[in-house]
Amino acid sequence: MANILILYSTTDGHTKKICHRIQSVVEQCGYEVKLFSISDESNIDLGTFDKIVVGASIRYGKHNKKVFDFVKRNKRILGNKPSAFFSVNLTARKPDKNQPDSNPYLRKFLNQVPWRPNEVAVFAGKIDYPKYQFFDRLIIRLIMYLTNGPTDPKTVAEFTDWDQVEHFARAISEM
User: How far is 37 from 34, CA to CA, in rounded Å?
Assistant: First the structure.
């Protein structure tokens, strides 16, 4: 039985929620899965895993620097094992930006790192204005206004296509 590691970087918790769904589907396929924050990566022996999956959210147009650092430090091991990467961003809520080849954040990330994962995906995230601090709520509302998204400060909207997440999880099981 393959031993699979899922590392995530999340800002508001939605990427972690997606990781839990991936974990559930992969475990149903008969694999053992360990889930950790990218912040805990230094305590993990990557060599003990057969496959590695990394998921990262976008905030203000960027993935967390820790994700870039992780990939750079571990490019050799990532290149020698079956691996996958997914990005979570609100741009993916749009039909013309919800695929790996059409999502600018995923494409930019892959162009900036020395890693070519076997599987890649992009998932639409979640807006939870009541949960955000004042400044984040203000900036995200501005971004949503400019991109024709929801701007009501009471909005809680999840855009994630869970069927797409489960399809990706099955692809991880098969890689």
Answer: 10
Do residue 113 and residue 146 come from a single domain?
no
Say yes or no: 169 and 145 in one domain: no
The tokens for 138 are 């203000």
Same domain, 86 and 121: yes
Q: Convert the pLDDT of each residue in 134-174 to its tens digit.
A: 999 999 999 999 999 999 999 999 999 999 999 999 999 99
Residue 43 pLDDT: 85
- Is pLDDT above 80 for 1? no
Query: In angstroms, rounded to a whole number, what is the distance separating the alpha carbons of residues 165 and 63?
Result: 19
Alpha-carbon span 147 to 136, nearest angstrom: 16
Number of domains within the chain:
2
Bridge partners, residue 156, by sequence: 128
Domain assignment of residue 136, given as a range:
127-159
Residues 12 and 46 in one domain: yes
Determine the Cα–Cα distance for residues 155 and 56; give it in Å rounded to an integer: 23
Q: Which amino acid is at 82?
A: P
Average pLDDT, the chain: 95
